[in-house]
Design goal:
Length: 495
């Protein structure tokens, strides 16, 4: 593609260099730059992309996208907001794949992954060729790919959408993070269905305050809703109610337990085997029978049914489709090696998500709940004592440990978590090594107990300083349980 054509894709961009220069690819990481590429010099949290222009040129870059003059003589496109410009350039380079897809977007603090999986399941059951982009995985026409970010950078996102179109995908469901919305990663995308799950304390290290965080989430509905699209909003959530009020009209439908919601449950039954209820919809009631457990999953099911119907499915198709999903990796996932107690691994990494998880597990009436959890380093510190308090209130034993400490000393993170234990009498332990913490929890469990391992869910690594080390809660728990079984401590079936 010619450099001039790329420059013209972004309004207000200025070309400094030959118009007919051929560009063979785009990159924003100098390490992945190839021959003939245009290198986008983006502003990072810790580094400036202009620092890597020389490296990119050595690897074959022939042009640069930046808001300032590059530090060497090279053709460049000048744009006031390089991130917004990259989104426009990437869409043009990949021939605007989003125009050939029906898009569903899900945003919120908790429940994005499960809701997105549910929508995708409903679409697949209705014989649509689907794509899925989210925290756990990317899936293209049934083929899974590893996911690195909840919502990829605009260049990666457009590349994946192009791949979807080329493989015959017609409907794509995206988890849309607040970071992605602020950083223009989904610029130019229009969603036929946009779901708001909830808003709780998270990412304040990035957004600064709750109001800014909420404003970021709202962008999905104010800037990216298709002219014929439908907002599907959780009316039970305080910020969801505010959002629904601001969007009031035919392009907004609500879900939840709140009277008057468009999608709400009646005759609800919850058990260890799942949930069953009659879902009211604007087109009449429909029966839902899902293997997913817990009140929070009822909310996810309602939002997914609303989104599926906004995408053209009938109430029956939507209900049958969401009911077909057996589970989501790292979300209320059981680990069973024949031990006489239950083990659940979950991604809960906010105080609200941990509260929902433990309340759901308590409703299953275990003898005791033993909770293992941690808080990530270099992230919102304010939630650490809150999560400690939630765990202490709802557990019989708490073991606080490392999550992804990143650059922070793990012991300092644990000290801040421990502040939340002060007003509670629940026994607790602080163990830096996560494997040791899980080991203690499992060795402490007896018949009828339930061990909840929270915070990392599906993740297969642990980030310590600059290194990502292999670590999967599910794998570790399974290994320890097998060892206990060989020692005679876990040979009985579940009660």
């Amino acid at each position: 593609m010619k450099l001039k054509a790329l420059a013209e894709a972004h309004p207000g961009a200025t070309l400094h260099g030959p118009a007919d220069l051929e560009i063979s690819g785009l990159s924003y990481d100098s390490r992945s730059t190839g021959r003939g590429h245009l290198f986008a010099a983006l502003h990072g949290v810790k580094q400036d992309g202009l620092e890597f222009v020389k490296s990119a040129k050595r690897r074959g870059a022939v042009a640069v996208l930046s808001d300032r003059t590059p530090p060497l003589d090279i053709p460049w496109i000048e744009a006031g907001d390089p991130r917004a410009a990259l989104a426009d350039l990437a869409a043009a380079f990949f021939h605007r794949p989003a125009e050939h897809l029906t898009l569903a977007g899900v945003t919120g603090t908790n429940g994005k992954t499960t809701t997105a999986f549910l929508i995708d399941a409903a679409l697949r059951e209705a014989s649509k060729v689907t794509g899925l982009l989210g925290t756990v995985e990317t899936r293209i026409a049934g083929r899974p790919k590893d996911a690195s970010l909840t919502t990829p950078e605009s260049l990666d996102l457009q590349r994946l959408l192009r791949e979807m179109v080329d493989e015959g995908v017609t409907h794509a469901t995206l988890e849309v993070s607040s970071h992605a919305l602020v950083q223009e990663r989904v610029r130019g995308l229009e969603f036929k269905a946009a779901v708001f799950t909830n808003l709780t304390r998270d990412h304040l290290d990035f957004h600064g305050d709750f109001e800014t965080y909420f404003a970021a989430k709202k962008l999905l509905f104010t800037e990216h809703l298709h002219e014929k699209g439908m907002a599907i909003v959780n009316l039970d959530d305080e910020h969801g109610s505010l959002l629904a009020e601001s969007l009031r009209g035919p392009r907004c439908q609500t879900f939840g337990f709140t009277p008057g919601a468009h999608f709400r449950p009646e005759n609800l039954e919850i058990s260890l085997e799942g949930v069953r209820f009659l879902c009211t919809t604007p087109k009449g009631p429909v029966e839902v029978n899902s293997p997913l457990v817990g009140l929070f999953n009822v909310s996810n099911l309602l939002g997914a049914i609303g989104a599926s119907m906004a995408l053209g499915l009938s109430p029956q198709e939507a209900a049958s489709g969401v009911s077909s999903l057996e589970g989501v990796p790292g979300r209320m996932e059981r680990v069973d090696e024949g031990q006489p107690f239950s083990v659940i691994v979950d991604y809960a990494h906010t105080d609200d998500a941990l509260r929902n998880l433990l309340d759901t597990l308590r409703s299953l009436k275990p003898r005791r709940i033993i909770t293992v959890f941690g808080c990530g380093g270099d992230r919102d510190r304010s939630k650490r004592p809150l999560m400690g308090s939630v765990a202490a209130q709802r557990s019989d034993l708490v073991i606080a440990t490392s999550d992804n400490p990143r650059s922070e000393p793990p012991s300092g993170i644990l000290d801040e978590i421990a502040q939340g234990f002060r007003n509670h009498t629940t026994p607790f332990k602080l163990i830096v090594d996560r494997r040791q913490a899980i080991d203690m929890a499992l060795r402490s469990a007896g018949p009828g107990d339930l061990v909840a391992i929270a915070g990392k869910g599906h993740e297969g690594t642990q980030t310590i300083r600059e290194k990502k080390l292999p670590f999967d809660d599910r794998v570790v728990a399974r290994e320890i349980l097998r060892d206990l079984g060989r020692l005679g401590g876990g040979s009985h079936a579940h009660p």
